[in-house]
Design a protein that fits this description.
With 500 residues, the protein is an alpha/beta fold. The chain is built from 23 helices and 16 strands.
Amino acid sequence: MSIPQTLGDLKASGYRTRPVKEEIRHNLINKLRRNEELFKGIVGYNDTVIPQIVIALLSKHNLIMLGLRGQAKSRILRELTGLLDEIIPIIAGSETNDDPFHPISAYGKRLVAERGDATPIAWIGRDSRYVEKLATPDVTIADIIGDVDPIKAARGGHLLSDELTIHYGLLPRANRGIFAINELPDLAGKIQVGLFNIMQEGDVQIKGYPVRLPLDVLLVFSANPEDYTARGKIITPLKDRIGAEVQTHYPATLADGMKITRQEAWADRQRDYLDHPYYNRMTFLIPRAIREIVEQIAFIARNDKRIDNRSGVSQRLPISVMESVVSNAERRSLHNHENLVTPRISDIYAAIPAITGKLELEYEGEQIGAGRIARDLIRKACGEVFSARYAGIDFRQVLDHFNHGNALTVSDMASDRAVYGELQTVSGLIEAASMARSGKIEKDTEGAIVSACELVLEGLHAQKRLARTEEHGAAKYGQAAPERPSRKQTFDDWSGGRVN
Protein backbone atom coordinates (compact mmCIF):
# COMPACT_ATOMS: atom_id res chain seq x y z
CA MET A 1 0.00 0.00 0.00
CA SER A 2 1.42 3.36 -1.08
CA ILE A 3 1.65 6.21 1.37
CA PRO A 4 -0.75 9.10 0.55
CA GLN A 5 1.07 12.07 -0.96
CA THR A 6 -1.80 14.55 -1.18
CA LEU A 7 -4.70 15.56 1.02
CA GLY A 8 -7.09 13.86 -1.39
CA ASP A 9 -5.14 10.58 -1.14
CA LEU A 10 -5.17 10.90 2.65
CA LYS A 11 -8.94 11.33 2.73
CA ALA A 12 -9.41 8.37 0.37
CA SER A 13 -7.25 6.14 2.61
CA GLY A 14 -9.60 6.67 5.53
CA TYR A 15 -6.80 8.00 7.74
CA ARG A 16 -7.95 9.88 10.82
CA THR A 17 -5.73 12.11 12.92
CA ARG A 18 -6.05 12.26 16.69
CA PRO A 19 -4.70 14.54 19.44
CA VAL A 20 -1.18 13.64 20.61
CA LYS A 21 -2.25 12.79 24.17
CA GLU A 22 -4.93 10.47 22.83
CA GLU A 23 -2.37 8.91 20.47
CA ILE A 24 0.06 8.30 23.36
CA ARG A 25 -2.71 6.88 25.54
CA HIS A 26 -3.80 4.48 22.78
CA ASN A 27 -0.27 3.21 22.12
CA LEU A 28 0.42 2.91 25.85
CA ILE A 29 -2.68 0.76 26.32
CA ASN A 30 -1.49 -1.56 23.54
CA LYS A 31 1.96 -1.87 25.10
CA LEU A 32 0.49 -2.62 28.52
CA ARG A 33 -1.76 -5.31 27.04
CA ARG A 34 1.25 -6.94 25.38
CA ASN A 35 3.41 -6.55 28.54
CA GLU A 36 6.04 -4.72 26.50
CA GLU A 37 8.91 -2.83 28.12
CA LEU A 38 7.95 0.84 28.23
CA PHE A 39 11.31 2.48 28.91
CA LYS A 40 14.39 0.65 27.67
CA GLY A 41 17.46 0.81 29.89
CA ILE A 42 15.62 2.24 32.90
CA VAL A 43 16.48 0.16 35.98
CA GLY A 44 14.90 0.14 39.44
CA TYR A 45 11.78 2.16 38.62
CA ASN A 46 9.32 -0.63 37.81
CA ASP A 47 7.50 -0.40 41.13
CA THR A 48 7.91 3.32 41.82
CA VAL A 49 8.41 5.82 39.02
CA ILE A 50 7.05 4.01 35.95
CA PRO A 51 3.58 3.36 37.46
CA GLN A 52 3.25 7.09 38.21
CA ILE A 53 4.18 7.96 34.62
CA VAL A 54 1.69 5.42 33.25
CA ILE A 55 -1.10 6.88 35.37
CA ALA A 56 -0.29 10.40 34.17
CA LEU A 57 -0.25 9.42 30.50
CA LEU A 58 -3.44 7.40 30.76
CA SER A 59 -4.99 10.51 32.30
CA LYS A 60 -3.70 12.67 29.40
CA HIS A 61 -1.79 14.86 31.86
CA ASN A 62 1.22 17.08 31.33
CA LEU A 63 3.86 15.99 33.84
CA ILE A 64 7.00 17.06 35.66
CA MET A 65 9.84 14.77 36.71
CA LEU A 66 11.25 15.78 40.08
CA GLY A 67 14.59 14.33 41.12
CA LEU A 68 18.22 14.96 41.95
CA ARG A 69 20.88 14.93 39.27
CA GLY A 70 21.73 11.65 37.63
CA GLN A 71 18.33 9.99 38.13
CA ALA A 72 17.53 9.44 34.42
CA LYS A 73 14.89 12.20 34.24
CA SER A 74 15.86 13.44 30.77
CA ARG A 75 16.34 9.91 29.51
CA ILE A 76 12.82 8.95 30.53
CA LEU A 77 11.38 12.03 28.83
CA ARG A 78 13.18 11.14 25.60
CA GLU A 79 11.90 7.57 25.83
CA LEU A 80 8.33 8.90 25.68
CA THR A 81 8.76 9.12 21.90
CA GLY A 82 8.36 5.34 21.83
CA LEU A 83 4.67 5.90 22.61
CA LEU A 84 4.11 8.02 19.49
CA ASP A 85 2.97 6.61 16.14
CA GLU A 86 5.83 5.62 13.84
CA ILE A 87 4.88 8.26 11.28
CA ILE A 88 2.17 10.88 10.91
CA PRO A 89 1.12 13.10 7.97
CA ILE A 90 1.69 16.85 7.93
CA ILE A 91 1.21 19.56 5.34
CA ALA A 92 4.45 19.59 3.36
CA GLY A 93 6.64 22.56 4.25
CA SER A 94 4.79 23.36 7.47
CA GLU A 95 6.98 24.58 10.35
CA THR A 96 4.31 23.66 12.90
CA ASN A 97 3.59 20.09 11.76
CA ASP A 98 0.15 21.16 10.56
CA ASP A 99 -2.57 18.52 10.64
CA PRO A 100 -3.76 18.28 7.00
CA PHE A 101 -7.37 18.15 8.18
CA HIS A 102 -7.06 20.96 10.77
CA PRO A 103 -4.11 23.30 10.05
CA ILE A 104 -3.29 25.94 12.68
CA SER A 105 -0.69 28.08 10.90
CA ALA A 106 -1.43 30.77 8.33
CA TYR A 107 0.78 28.88 5.86
CA GLY A 108 -1.15 25.64 6.30
CA LYS A 109 -4.58 27.26 6.13
CA ARG A 110 -3.66 29.22 3.00
CA LEU A 111 -2.18 26.18 1.23
CA VAL A 112 -5.27 24.05 1.88
CA ALA A 113 -7.55 26.89 0.78
CA GLU A 114 -5.63 27.33 -2.47
CA ARG A 115 -4.94 23.72 -3.45
CA GLY A 116 -7.66 21.74 -1.71
CA ASP A 117 -7.25 17.98 -2.16
CA ALA A 118 -4.04 18.59 -4.12
CA THR A 119 -2.32 19.91 -0.98
CA PRO A 120 1.00 18.02 -0.74
CA ILE A 121 1.53 15.76 2.28
CA ALA A 122 4.80 14.87 4.03
CA TRP A 123 5.33 12.18 6.67
CA ILE A 124 7.48 12.65 9.79
CA GLY A 125 8.76 10.12 12.31
CA ARG A 126 8.83 10.00 16.09
CA ASP A 127 12.15 11.72 16.60
CA SER A 128 11.00 14.77 14.63
CA ARG A 129 8.10 15.18 17.03
CA TYR A 130 10.22 15.56 20.18
CA VAL A 131 11.60 19.01 21.02
CA GLU A 132 13.74 19.58 24.11
CA LYS A 133 15.04 22.80 25.63
CA LEU A 134 17.34 23.31 28.60
CA ALA A 135 15.95 26.20 30.64
CA THR A 136 18.51 28.92 31.32
CA PRO A 137 18.00 32.51 32.50
CA ASP A 138 18.86 33.86 29.04
CA VAL A 139 16.06 32.00 27.24
CA THR A 140 13.69 34.49 25.56
CA ILE A 141 10.07 34.38 24.55
CA ALA A 142 11.31 34.34 20.94
CA ASP A 143 13.17 31.08 21.62
CA ILE A 144 10.06 29.41 23.01
CA ILE A 145 7.16 31.00 21.13
CA GLY A 146 8.63 32.91 18.19
CA ASP A 147 9.28 36.39 16.85
CA VAL A 148 8.58 38.57 13.83
CA ASP A 149 11.13 38.01 11.06
CA PRO A 150 11.64 41.24 9.07
CA ILE A 151 13.47 39.35 6.31
CA LYS A 152 10.44 37.11 5.77
CA ALA A 153 8.23 40.20 5.63
CA ALA A 154 10.48 41.91 3.07
CA ARG A 155 10.89 38.88 0.82
CA GLY A 156 7.20 38.00 0.86
CA GLY A 157 5.91 41.55 0.71
CA HIS A 158 3.90 41.02 3.91
CA LEU A 159 2.97 43.45 6.65
CA LEU A 160 4.73 42.86 9.96
CA SER A 161 1.33 42.06 11.48
CA ASP A 162 0.86 39.19 9.00
CA GLU A 163 1.29 35.80 10.66
CA LEU A 164 3.37 34.65 7.68
CA THR A 165 6.20 36.87 8.92
CA ILE A 166 6.61 34.90 12.16
CA HIS A 167 9.67 32.79 12.79
CA TYR A 168 8.23 30.11 15.05
CA GLY A 169 9.97 29.12 18.29
CA LEU A 170 10.45 25.68 19.76
CA LEU A 171 6.98 25.20 21.20
CA PRO A 172 5.00 25.74 17.95
CA ARG A 173 7.51 23.49 16.18
CA ALA A 174 6.63 20.76 18.71
CA ASN A 175 2.96 20.88 17.64
CA ARG A 176 1.46 17.36 17.50
CA GLY A 177 4.41 16.07 19.51
CA ILE A 178 6.20 16.31 22.86
CA PHE A 179 7.81 19.48 24.19
CA ALA A 180 10.27 18.99 27.07
CA ILE A 181 11.89 21.65 29.24
CA ASN A 182 14.74 20.57 31.49
CA GLU A 183 15.38 22.42 34.78
CA LEU A 184 12.10 24.34 34.61
CA PRO A 185 12.74 26.56 37.70
CA ASP A 186 15.62 28.23 35.84
CA LEU A 187 13.21 29.58 33.23
CA ALA A 188 12.46 33.29 33.74
CA GLY A 189 9.03 34.06 35.17
CA LYS A 190 7.84 36.07 32.14
CA ILE A 191 8.72 33.14 29.85
CA GLN A 192 6.72 30.81 32.07
CA VAL A 193 3.77 33.21 31.76
CA GLY A 194 4.00 33.11 27.98
CA LEU A 195 4.31 29.32 28.09
CA PHE A 196 1.25 29.01 30.29
CA ASN A 197 -0.77 31.45 28.22
CA ILE A 198 -0.28 29.64 24.95
CA MET A 199 -1.07 26.31 26.61
CA GLN A 200 -4.13 27.56 28.47
CA GLU A 201 -5.65 30.02 26.04
CA GLY A 202 -4.03 29.00 22.77
CA ASP A 203 -2.95 32.53 21.92
CA VAL A 204 0.08 34.76 22.38
CA GLN A 205 1.18 38.29 21.53
CA ILE A 206 4.31 38.66 19.45
CA LYS A 207 5.57 42.24 19.12
CA GLY A 208 2.11 43.41 20.14
CA TYR A 209 0.29 41.36 17.49
CA PRO A 210 -2.12 38.70 18.82
CA VAL A 211 -1.58 35.27 17.25
CA ARG A 212 -3.93 32.32 17.69
CA LEU A 213 -2.05 29.02 18.02
CA PRO A 214 -4.20 26.21 19.43
CA LEU A 215 -1.27 23.82 19.83
CA ASP A 216 -1.67 20.09 20.31
CA VAL A 217 1.28 19.06 22.48
CA LEU A 218 2.24 16.97 25.48
CA LEU A 219 4.19 19.22 27.82
CA VAL A 220 6.79 17.56 30.07
CA PHE A 221 9.30 19.08 32.46
CA SER A 222 12.18 18.09 34.69
CA ALA A 223 13.37 19.85 37.83
CA ASN A 224 15.48 19.41 40.92
CA PRO A 225 13.14 19.22 43.95
CA GLU A 226 15.38 21.60 45.89
CA ASP A 227 14.84 24.29 43.25
CA TYR A 228 11.18 23.42 42.82
CA THR A 229 10.17 23.59 46.47
CA ALA A 230 12.68 25.92 48.14
CA ARG A 231 13.40 28.58 45.54
CA GLY A 232 9.81 28.60 44.26
CA LYS A 233 10.59 29.66 40.71
CA ILE A 234 7.68 27.91 39.01
CA ILE A 235 4.80 30.35 38.65
CA THR A 236 1.56 29.22 40.28
CA PRO A 237 -0.62 29.14 37.10
CA LEU A 238 1.92 26.96 35.30
CA LYS A 239 2.40 24.72 38.31
CA ASP A 240 -1.37 24.28 38.50
CA ARG A 241 -1.45 23.34 34.81
CA ILE A 242 0.94 20.43 35.35
CA GLY A 243 -1.25 17.40 35.92
CA ALA A 244 1.23 14.99 37.51
CA GLU A 245 4.36 15.30 39.64
CA VAL A 246 6.57 12.22 39.38
CA GLN A 247 9.36 11.73 41.93
CA THR A 248 12.50 9.90 40.81
CA HIS A 249 15.16 8.38 43.07
CA TYR A 250 18.60 6.78 43.13
CA PRO A 251 18.94 2.96 42.90
CA ALA A 252 17.42 1.35 45.98
CA THR A 253 19.77 -1.64 45.97
CA LEU A 254 23.41 -2.25 45.15
CA ALA A 255 22.33 -4.79 42.52
CA ASP A 256 20.25 -2.16 40.68
CA GLY A 257 23.12 0.32 40.81
CA MET A 258 25.57 -2.25 39.46
CA LYS A 259 23.17 -3.11 36.65
CA ILE A 260 22.92 0.55 35.64
CA THR A 261 26.68 1.04 35.77
CA ARG A 262 27.34 -2.15 33.79
CA GLN A 263 24.82 -0.96 31.19
CA GLU A 264 26.13 2.60 30.89
CA ALA A 265 29.89 2.41 31.57
CA TRP A 266 32.21 1.94 28.59
CA ALA A 267 34.16 -1.07 29.84
CA ASP A 268 34.06 -3.62 26.99
CA ARG A 269 36.95 -2.33 24.91
CA GLN A 270 38.53 -5.45 23.45
CA ARG A 271 37.03 -4.80 20.02
CA ASP A 272 39.30 -1.73 19.80
CA TYR A 273 42.28 -4.09 19.62
CA LEU A 274 41.01 -6.61 17.07
CA ASP A 275 43.15 -5.19 14.26
CA HIS A 276 46.27 -4.72 16.38
CA PRO A 277 49.08 -7.18 15.50
CA TYR A 278 50.10 -7.79 19.14
CA TYR A 279 47.09 -6.88 21.27
CA ASN A 280 44.43 -8.50 19.08
CA ARG A 281 43.68 -10.93 21.92
CA MET A 282 43.27 -8.21 24.53
CA THR A 283 40.62 -9.29 27.05
CA PHE A 284 38.95 -7.25 29.80
CA LEU A 285 37.96 -9.10 32.97
CA ILE A 286 36.31 -7.00 35.69
CA PRO A 287 35.95 -8.90 38.98
CA ARG A 288 32.54 -8.63 40.59
CA ALA A 289 34.14 -7.32 43.80
CA ILE A 290 35.49 -4.32 41.88
CA ARG A 291 32.01 -3.59 40.50
CA GLU A 292 30.56 -3.82 44.02
CA ILE A 293 33.15 -1.46 45.48
CA VAL A 294 32.67 1.15 42.74
CA GLU A 295 28.91 1.10 43.29
CA GLN A 296 29.26 1.10 47.07
CA ILE A 297 31.24 4.36 46.85
CA ALA A 298 28.14 6.15 45.54
CA PHE A 299 25.86 4.56 48.15
CA ILE A 300 28.14 5.61 51.00
CA ALA A 301 28.60 9.12 49.57
CA ARG A 302 24.83 9.67 49.50
CA ASN A 303 24.72 9.21 53.28
CA ASP A 304 27.91 11.11 54.12
CA LYS A 305 27.21 14.26 56.14
CA ARG A 306 30.27 15.97 54.65
CA ILE A 307 28.64 15.83 51.20
CA ASP A 308 25.72 18.06 50.20
CA ASN A 309 22.94 15.54 49.73
CA ARG A 310 20.51 18.23 48.59
CA SER A 311 22.29 18.31 45.23
CA GLY A 312 22.70 14.53 45.31
CA VAL A 313 25.45 12.16 44.27
CA SER A 314 24.78 11.42 40.63
CA GLN A 315 24.61 7.90 39.24
CA ARG A 316 27.16 9.21 36.77
CA LEU A 317 29.74 8.95 39.57
CA PRO A 318 30.04 5.13 39.57
CA ILE A 319 29.80 5.13 35.77
CA SER A 320 32.73 7.56 35.44
CA VAL A 321 34.69 5.79 38.17
CA MET A 322 34.25 2.40 36.50
CA GLU A 323 35.46 3.78 33.17
CA SER A 324 38.50 5.35 34.89
CA VAL A 325 39.24 2.14 36.79
CA VAL A 326 39.23 0.14 33.55
CA SER A 327 41.37 2.79 31.84
CA ASN A 328 44.07 2.65 34.52
CA ALA A 329 44.11 -1.15 34.32
CA GLU A 330 44.29 -0.86 30.53
CA ARG A 331 47.21 1.59 30.86
CA ARG A 332 49.06 -0.87 33.11
CA SER A 333 48.47 -3.79 30.76
CA LEU A 334 49.74 -1.83 27.77
CA HIS A 335 52.79 -0.71 29.75
CA ASN A 336 53.58 -4.30 30.76
CA HIS A 337 52.60 -5.88 27.39
CA GLU A 338 49.84 -7.97 28.95
CA ASN A 339 46.80 -9.21 27.03
CA LEU A 340 44.51 -9.64 30.05
CA VAL A 341 43.23 -6.46 31.69
CA THR A 342 42.04 -7.02 35.26
CA PRO A 343 41.23 -3.99 37.43
CA ARG A 344 42.20 -4.06 41.11
CA ILE A 345 41.89 -1.85 44.19
CA SER A 346 44.84 0.34 43.25
CA ASP A 347 42.98 1.26 40.06
CA ILE A 348 40.05 2.57 42.12
CA TYR A 349 42.42 4.89 43.98
CA ALA A 350 43.78 6.01 40.60
CA ALA A 351 40.21 6.96 39.66
CA ILE A 352 39.88 9.55 42.46
CA PRO A 353 39.67 12.47 39.94
CA ALA A 354 36.44 10.87 38.66
CA ILE A 355 35.03 11.07 42.20
CA THR A 356 36.10 14.52 43.40
CA GLY A 357 34.54 16.35 40.46
CA LYS A 358 31.10 14.94 41.24
CA LEU A 359 30.90 15.78 44.95
CA GLU A 360 29.29 18.97 46.26
CA LEU A 361 30.75 19.39 49.74
CA GLU A 362 29.31 20.88 52.91
CA TYR A 363 31.44 23.28 54.98
CA GLU A 364 33.01 20.43 56.94
CA GLY A 365 33.86 18.59 53.74
CA GLU A 366 35.45 21.66 52.20
CA GLN A 367 37.73 21.96 55.21
CA ILE A 368 38.84 18.34 54.82
CA GLY A 369 39.18 18.40 51.04
CA ALA A 370 37.55 16.40 48.24
CA GLY A 371 40.61 14.17 47.71
CA ARG A 372 40.73 13.03 51.31
CA ILE A 373 36.99 12.40 51.36
CA ALA A 374 37.27 10.36 48.14
CA ARG A 375 39.96 8.16 49.71
CA ASP A 376 37.79 7.73 52.78
CA LEU A 377 34.84 6.68 50.61
CA ILE A 378 36.99 4.08 48.82
CA ARG A 379 38.28 2.72 52.13
CA LYS A 380 34.76 2.41 53.54
CA ALA A 381 33.45 0.80 50.35
CA CYS A 382 36.27 -1.75 50.41
CA GLY A 383 35.47 -2.44 54.06
CA GLU A 384 31.80 -3.07 53.27
CA VAL A 385 32.54 -5.47 50.39
CA PHE A 386 35.32 -7.19 52.35
CA SER A 387 33.06 -7.77 55.35
CA ALA A 388 30.30 -9.21 53.15
CA ARG A 389 32.67 -11.54 51.27
CA TYR A 390 35.04 -12.66 54.00
CA ALA A 391 32.91 -12.76 57.15
CA GLY A 392 34.11 -15.50 59.51
CA ILE A 393 37.41 -16.16 57.69
CA ASP A 394 40.55 -16.30 59.85
CA PHE A 395 43.28 -13.86 58.75
CA ARG A 396 45.60 -14.38 61.75
CA GLN A 397 48.35 -15.87 59.59
CA VAL A 398 48.28 -12.84 57.30
CA LEU A 399 48.25 -10.41 60.23
CA ASP A 400 51.09 -12.27 61.96
CA HIS A 401 53.23 -11.75 58.87
CA PHE A 402 52.86 -7.98 59.15
CA ASN A 403 52.99 -7.94 62.96
CA HIS A 404 56.51 -9.36 62.73
CA GLY A 405 57.64 -6.13 61.08
CA ASN A 406 57.19 -7.16 57.44
CA ALA A 407 55.73 -4.78 54.87
CA LEU A 408 54.34 -5.11 51.35
CA THR A 409 54.45 -2.45 48.64
CA VAL A 410 52.08 -2.75 45.69
CA SER A 411 52.46 -0.43 42.69
CA ASP A 412 49.47 0.32 40.49
CA MET A 413 51.74 -0.01 37.43
CA ALA A 414 53.38 -3.31 38.38
CA SER A 415 52.40 -6.28 36.21
CA ASP A 416 50.03 -8.95 37.51
CA ARG A 417 52.87 -11.46 37.55
CA ALA A 418 55.18 -9.17 39.51
CA VAL A 419 52.55 -8.36 42.14
CA TYR A 420 51.51 -12.02 42.34
CA GLY A 421 55.10 -12.88 43.18
CA GLU A 422 55.15 -10.28 45.96
CA LEU A 423 51.85 -11.54 47.38
CA GLN A 424 53.23 -15.07 47.62
CA THR A 425 55.67 -13.83 50.25
CA VAL A 426 52.78 -12.98 52.61
CA SER A 427 51.96 -16.13 54.54
CA GLY A 428 48.40 -17.36 53.91
CA LEU A 429 47.24 -14.33 51.91
CA ILE A 430 46.49 -16.00 48.58
CA GLU A 431 44.85 -18.95 50.32
CA ALA A 432 42.66 -16.69 52.47
CA ALA A 433 41.71 -14.48 49.50
CA SER A 434 40.47 -17.60 47.69
CA MET A 435 38.01 -18.38 50.51
CA ALA A 436 35.48 -15.68 49.64
CA ARG A 437 31.81 -16.53 50.10
CA SER A 438 31.36 -16.41 46.33
CA GLY A 439 33.14 -19.78 46.28
CA LYS A 440 36.16 -19.02 44.11
CA ILE A 441 38.03 -16.24 42.39
CA GLU A 442 36.67 -15.45 38.94
CA LYS A 443 38.68 -17.16 36.18
CA ASP A 444 41.45 -17.94 38.71
CA THR A 445 43.97 -15.88 36.71
CA GLU A 446 46.96 -14.09 38.20
CA GLY A 447 45.18 -10.77 37.71
CA ALA A 448 42.02 -11.97 39.45
CA ILE A 449 44.03 -13.37 42.36
CA VAL A 450 45.95 -10.10 42.70
CA SER A 451 42.66 -8.17 42.69
CA ALA A 452 41.21 -10.43 45.41
CA CYS A 453 44.35 -10.15 47.55
CA GLU A 454 44.32 -6.38 47.28
CA LEU A 455 40.70 -6.42 48.48
CA VAL A 456 41.76 -8.46 51.54
CA LEU A 457 44.60 -6.05 52.33
CA GLU A 458 42.35 -3.02 51.86
CA GLY A 459 39.57 -4.64 53.91
CA LEU A 460 41.95 -5.33 56.78
CA HIS A 461 43.10 -1.73 56.56
CA ALA A 462 39.47 -0.53 56.66
CA GLN A 463 39.05 -2.55 59.87
CA LYS A 464 42.22 -0.86 61.22
CA ARG A 465 44.05 -4.18 61.43
CA LEU A 466 46.65 -3.11 58.86
CA ALA A 467 48.32 0.23 58.20
CA ARG A 468 48.34 1.67 54.68
CA THR A 469 50.39 4.52 53.25
CA GLU A 470 50.73 5.87 49.72
CA GLU A 471 53.92 6.93 48.03
CA HIS A 472 54.60 7.61 44.34
CA GLY A 473 51.70 5.58 42.92
CA ALA A 474 52.25 2.65 45.27
CA ALA A 475 50.45 1.45 48.40
CA LYS A 476 52.48 0.15 51.32
CA TYR A 477 50.83 -2.18 53.84
CA GLY A 478 52.31 -2.85 57.26
CA GLN A 479 51.59 -3.42 60.93
CA ALA A 480 48.73 -1.33 62.27
CA ALA A 481 49.67 1.25 64.87
CA PRO A 482 48.27 0.43 68.34
CA GLU A 483 45.14 2.38 69.19
CA ARG A 484 45.58 5.07 71.79
CA PRO A 485 43.40 4.29 74.83
CA SER A 486 40.66 6.67 75.78
CA ARG A 487 40.86 8.60 79.04
CA LYS A 488 38.36 6.18 80.60
CA GLN A 489 40.41 3.16 79.54
CA THR A 490 43.57 4.72 80.99
CA PHE A 491 41.83 5.36 84.33
CA ASP A 492 40.41 1.82 84.42
CA ASP A 493 43.86 0.33 83.79
CA TRP A 494 45.36 2.47 86.58
CA SER A 495 42.60 1.75 89.07
CA GLY A 496 42.12 -1.87 88.17
CA GLY A 497 38.68 -1.01 86.88
CA ARG A 498 37.49 0.00 90.34
CA VAL A 499 35.73 3.24 91.02
CA ASN A 500 35.85 4.43 94.67
